[in-house]
TrEMBL record:
One of its GO terms (molecular function) is protein serine/threonine phosphatase inhibitor activity. This is Protein phosphatase 1 regulatory subunit 14B. Residues 1-33 are annotated as: Disordered. GO terms for biological process: innate immune response. The keyword tRNA processing does not apply.
Length: 128
């Protein structure tokens, strides 16, 4: 037996618009979707991390008296610091990284430790 469709149960017809051939109109700019990164991580933590990294770059340019591009190759891994058990270990690691700086680094190290206190490690979340 065939099912009887009534106007109330069948979906309304769809209307599609096409640009006439020969026209070169630019399509409207698509709406940006929220990036995957902000879905996986907390936006506030990402903002904190970005601000911290910008602060580190500013401090290193002052310490080394040079432009950002001329800073010696060193990587201050915030996640690595957060994994360390104590502030003494963190301070020793940062001092080890900036050992070739001729300016005093104690203020930089203590300020950095203050800034990372309470931050969360940005690890990849597990899929559920």
């Amino acid at each position: 037996m065939a099912a009887v469709t009534s106007p109330e149960t069948s979906p309304p017809p769809r209307v599609y618009f096409q640009t006439p051939a020969g026209t070169t109109e630019e399509p409207e700019t698509p709406v940006r979707k929220q990036g995957r990164v902000t879905v996986k991580y907390d936006r506030k933590e990402l903002r904190k991390r970005l601000n911290l990294e910008e602060w580190i770059i500013d401090q290193l340019t002052d310490l080394y008296d040079c432009e950002e591009e001329a800073i010696p190759e060193l990587e201050i891994d915030v996640d690595e610091l957060l994994d360390m058990p104590s502030d003494n270990d963190r301070a020793a690691r940062v001092k080890e990284l900036v050992v070739d700086c001729y300016k005093p680094t104690e203020d930089f190290v203590s300020d950095l430790l203050d800034k990372i206190r309470g931050m969360q490690k940005l690890s990849t979340p597990q899929k559920k």
